[in-house]
Amino acid sequence: MGDYDVSVRLLEYTRDRDCKCDGGFWGSCGECDVYFQICLQPLSPTQGRICQGNNQDDRVDDTHHFLFASALRGHDTYTWSNVNGQPTFQISVNVFDYDSIGDNDDLGVTSYTYRGNRPTVQTVTTTPGNKNMRYKIEKYGE
Ligand SMILES: [Ca+2]
Ligand SMILES: [Ca+2]
Q1: Under 8 Å CB-to-CB from 104, ≥6 apart: which residues?
Q2: What is the pLDDT of residue 41?
Q3: Fewer CB within 10 Å, N side or C side of the chain?
Q4: Which DSSP letter does residue 131 get?
């Protein structure tokens, strides 16, 4: 029996245009084919991370910007139920580039720490952010 629920809705994905993501042969632009892993890390008390997503079938090809509501409808909301303790947690969103040949590429991770009394719509920046990756996420419920 847990103490709180968390829902996160991903709204918008933005990253600097990256034509080298898929090689960019012969002057063409090989943009990233992105999919996501979303993790909840409870901070009080500290518990194990619980991750969702990480499904390369739920991806957007050749992109550096999109709205989840149109591009990934049905795969934009993630819920964690019955989490123990205080509603203090970190949400991290890791983005990967799907490659049909070879290993997928890790494009970076953004994290957002919720401690209550914060705006529910946040724009967070990647670290390291060499391509200035940003998400807009909405957190609701508790
Ligand atoms: Ca690639
Ligand atoms: Ca790719």
Answers
A1: 56, 96, 97, 98
A2: 94
A3: N
A4: T
Q: Are 67 and 11 spatial neighbours (Cβ–Cβ below 8 Å)?
A: yes
Distance 6 CA to ligand 2 centre (A): 31
**Domain CATH number, residue 41:** 2.60.40.3510
Is residue 21, in this structure, part of any structural domain at all? no
Q: Extract the residue ranges of the chain whose pLDDT is less than 50.
A: 125-130, 142
Ligand 2 centroid from CA 31, angstroms: 7
Distance 7 CA to ligand 1 centre (A): 30
In a domain, 27, yes or no: no
Confirm whether 25 is domain-assigned.
Answer: no
Is the pTM for the entire model greater than 0.85? no
Is the peptide bond prior to 128 cis by the omega test (within 30 degrees of 0)?
yes
In a domain, 22, yes or no: no
Residues spanned by the domain of 40: 4-16+32-140
What's the token pair of residue 18?
């990256």
Structure tokens that stand for 94 in this block: 């890791």
